[in-house]
Design a protein that fits this description.
CATH superfamily: Carbon-nitrogen hydrolase
Helix content: 25-40%
CATH architecture: 4-Layer Sandwich
Strand content: 25-35%
Radius of gyration: 18 Å
Number of helices: 6
CATH class: Alpha Beta
Number of strands: 16
Distance between the termini: 25 Å
């Protein structure tokens, strides 16, 4: 697939509720706004189709990838608008009683290019009593994914993955130029870590980072941070939203990826070394 050196990209920021059809309606309206502003690559947040805290209820609201209405609608939208559409993630069934948190990349003709299942599960207890146990509801993914798109090579990740730097190094060394981090970040962790982690992932990989986010108080009671962000390969914040839903549009230039990696060629400088209590280090990236 021929890549464009310069492209206009967009992140959309939503506040997903309990009804998938209504959430996709909202997402579609924002996607159309982004395309009207010239975007050819549009990325949506984690859990674009629904934020539902009850596993049994969630199973009743979503289907498997091949028959889920949200997947069909978004594929058709990509084809209609002739865009690369990164659906940040959807809750989908994987069998009768299993769920996956899955990111989907559609080509401008509406075909599915790649999918990625969130690898790292957010199982934490935060101050103030907030508790999240994703592994109780979702099957964790087991592989890193990179895909060719018209706008560049895209490494696909989701939310909590951003705290695991090795994943991003592997994606960059496999050729990623753009890394997507769709999210539904909590407010406490968002205020503390969102920007610094996104900028760190961009700097250490020399990639553009697109981070569309959920924002607001959801029908399920969850509160998310918002602040969707686009970060350049040298770490500059190209654009950032606040807490309102809407769109974030920016122009990117893949020559900036090459320039950042020339200035600091750290992706080429892995070395084997012994770790604490180990006789040898197993190289995870080369």
């Amino acid at each position: 697939m021929a890549q464009q050196v310069k492209s206009r990209v967009a992140c959309i920021q939503t506040c997903s509720g309990l009804r998938p059809a209504a959430n996709i309606d909202d997402a579609e309206g924002l996607i159309r706004r982004a395309v009207a502003d010239g975007a050819t690559l549009v990325a949506t947040p984690e859990m674009t189709n629904v934020i539902e805290s009850k596993r049994d209820r969630l199973l009743g609201k979503v289907g498997q990838q091949l028959d889920d209405p949200s997947v069909k609608r978004l594929a058709e939208l990509a084809g209609e608008l002739n865009i690369t559409l990164l659906v940040g993630s959807l809750a989908l069934r994987d069998g009768d009683d299993k769920l996956v948190n899955r990111s989907l990349l559609f080509a401008p003709d509406g075909t599915l290019v790649a999918h990625y299942d969130k690898v790292h599960m957010f199982d934490v207890e935060l101050e103030g009593g907030e508790r999240y146990h994703e592994s109780r509801s979702y099957q964790a993914g087991t592989r890193a994914v990179i895909a060719d798109a018209r706008e560049g090579r895209i490494g696909m990740t989701i939310c909590y993955d951003m705290r695991f730097a090795a994943l991003y190094r592997i994606l960059a060394q496999a050729g990623a130029e753009i890394i997507t981090i769709p999210s539904a970040f909590t407010r406490p962790t968002g205020k503390a870590h969102w920007e610094v982690l996104l900028r760190a992932r961009a700097i250490e990989t020399g990639c553009y980072v697109l981070a569309p986010a959920q924002s607001g108080v959801h029908e399920s009671g969850r509160k998310t941070y918002g602040h969707s962000m686009i970060v350049a390969p040298w770490g500059e914040v190209v654009g950032e939203m606040g807490e309102d839903t809407g769109i974030l549009v920016a122009d990117i230039d893949l020559d900036e990826v090459k320039a950042a990696r020339r200035k600091v060629p750290a992706l080429e400088h892995d070395r084997a070394f012994a770790g604490p209590g180990r006789s040898e280090f197993i190289r995870v990236a080369s």
